[in-house]
Amino acid sequence: MKLFQKLFKQTFIYGLATVLPRMLSFLLVPLYTGVMPPGGYGELTLIFTAFAIFNVILAYGMETAFFRFHAAEQDKGRVLSTALISILASTFGFFLLGATFRTPLAGLMNIDTSYFWYFLIILSLDALVIVPFARLRAMEKPGVYAFIKVANVATNILFNLFFLLALPKLATEDPTGIWGRLYLPDFQISYILIANLIASGITLLILSGNYIQLKWEWDRALLRRMLRYGLPVMVAGIAFTINEVFDKYLLSELLPMSQDAARAEVGKYAACYKLAMFMTLFATAFRLGIEPFFFSHAQSENPKRAYAQITNYFVVLGSVILLAVVVFADVLKVLFIQNEAYWEAMTIVPIILLASFFLGVYHNLSVWYKVTDRTRFGAVISIVGAVITIAINVIFIPVYGYYASAWATLAAYGSMMVLSYLLGRKYYPIPYNLRKIAFYLGLSLVFSAVAFYGFNRSLYAGLPLLFVFLGVLYRLEKELLFKLIGGR
Questions:
Q1: CA–CA dist 54, 94 (Å, integer)
Q2: Which residues contact 456 (CB under 8 A, 6 or more apart)?
């Protein structure tokens, strides 16, 4: 039980490092939707879609490979230096390539060329901190990790507020002064990217000691092994990112309407999609906590039983979050999406929530191919999900719009979850409690459907259902929860 307490303590701290910054950035949603119409927010969404895809490419699985070899190798300093030198060289090469071919690349990604320099610099800065952040996690320093992550987002938010709210007001009060000269109207997207650039630069400065103190020990054979392990993770990451964000790009290209109208639809979809972030944040925090645990306890006594228990915890807590967000959906939309022009896409929220839940379960199930060094299966599974995502979007977006994108996300993550479970039974069978998983998920889904569709999102109907679910959970799991919290 002490093992699980340590796991959940680290998960809680990583949760603060992940959930708090993203919750802070979530506060930018009402700001962005307040200063931009759906079309402008849709254009910004497309830029961040490209960010997500290229972040995975520039990492090329080195983060996960670093975990694996840092835990397995005796010479941990050589693992660190090899990973840092590799990232440094690849990032420099990417920057030169992007600067040389910026115009065709911007056109290919449907990004305005005026934004491309920001895009290129931010990507490069973020790539250089991948290994330093992984090192903090491998050394079990979640507090430092959390502090830097929170500082990054706090800086980002501070400059967003300054550029989007304070600067226009200052310029209006003093149009001929310094603020009036600094302010540019209709420059919101550039201001947002500048805020991101400043935050990324400060983060790299904080972590620059990893490079300043770097021992230039480059082990070519070690790098080959790390790449052999990590590149399938990159392929899986690209496929996963396609599942997560590529639907926004496909919406902008496939909707049978003008470009401005299509971007407005992307903006509505992306804004309501954000309400599912509560599940995504929980799943991400959980993954950050358990990933080092997977590797460090792979050789312990009966690790499979521990892995199964962790998945049970995730399903129980995830089912609560699923139902709670559905019950409070209309409250959340007023708090975070104050512009009613975005609200027509609210019907996608339960679909995306369930999809995010399936993705979290998949991450828990993925332990089998990570601890057995079969990461190629992770790539295959994610590619299957990406194919499903692209196929459903391409076929159905022209008819059903963003509803097709929501169902495609659910189908992709659900398929990945099932496929990972079936392959895991063959190569690394883990005794999951399927009866408990089905019970909590099924009950949460039934209550969610009744609250959202049966009673039209009424709190008077949803709250009693939520309390009943929590009562059932307490009755059945209280002994385990008390042990986990109290250590008895």
A1: 10
A2: none
Per-residue pLDDT of the chain (488 residues; tens, 9 = 90+): 455 555 555 555 655 666 666 666 667 888 888 888 888 888 888 888 888 889 999 998 888 888 778 777 677 788 889 989 999 999 999 999 999 998 888 887 777 888 999 999 999 999 999 999 988 877 877 778 888 988 898 899 999 999 999 999 999 988 888 888 889 888 999 999 999 999 999 999 999 988 888 888 888 888 888 888 888 778 878 887 887 888 888 998 898 888 788 888 998 998 888 888 888 878 777 776 666 666 555 555 667 877 788 888 889 889 999 999 999 988 888 888 878 888 888 999 999 999 999 998 998 888 888 777 787 888 888 889 989 999 999 999 999 999 999 999 999 999 999 999 999 988 888 888 899 899 999 999 999 999 998 888 888 889 999 999 999 988 888 776 665 555 44
- State the Cα–Cα distance between residues 198 and 52, nearest whole angstrom: 18
3-state secondary structure of 79: helix
b/e per residue 120-129 (b: at least 16 CB within 10 A): bbbbbbbbbb
Q: Please answer whether residues 147 and 20 qualify as being in contact, where contact means their C-beta atoms are separated by less than 8 angstroms.
A: no
**Is residue 167 left, alpha or beta, with left meaning phi > 0 and alpha meaning psi from -120 to 50?**
alpha
**What is each CA distance from 482 to 155, 241, 254, 479, in whole angstroms?**
38, 38, 52, 5
- The whole-angstrom separation of Cα 359 and Cα 413 is 5
Distance CA(444)–CA(291), nearest Å, equals 27
Q: Which residue has the tokens 């991400």?
A: 284
- φ/ψ of 102, rounded to 5, equals -65, -40
| Rounded Cα–Cα distance for residues 314 and 356 (Å) | 12
Map out the domains of the chain as residue ranges: 2-486
Q: How far is CA 187 from CA 28, 194, 266, 401, in A?
A: 16, 11, 20, 29
SS3 content of the chain, % helix, strand, coil (to 5): 85, 0, 15
Cα-atom radius of gyration of the chain, to the nearest Å? 23
DSSP 260-323: HHHHHHHHHHHHHHGGGHHHHHHHHHHHHHHHHHHHHTTTSSSHHHHHHHHHHHHHHHHHHHHH
Question: Quick one: angle between helices 259-273 and 28-35, nearest 10?
Answer: 160
Query: What is the separation, in whole angstroms, between the first and last Cα of the chain?
Result: 8
Contact call for residues 352 and 409 (beta carbons, < 8 A): yes
* DSSP structure class, residue 213: T
Contact between 134 and 148 under an 8 Å Cβ cutoff? The reply is: no
Q: What is the dihedral of CA 371, 372, 376, 378, to 10 degrees?
A: -40
Residues 6+ apart with CB under 8 A from 413: 243, 355, 356, 358, 359, 362, 385
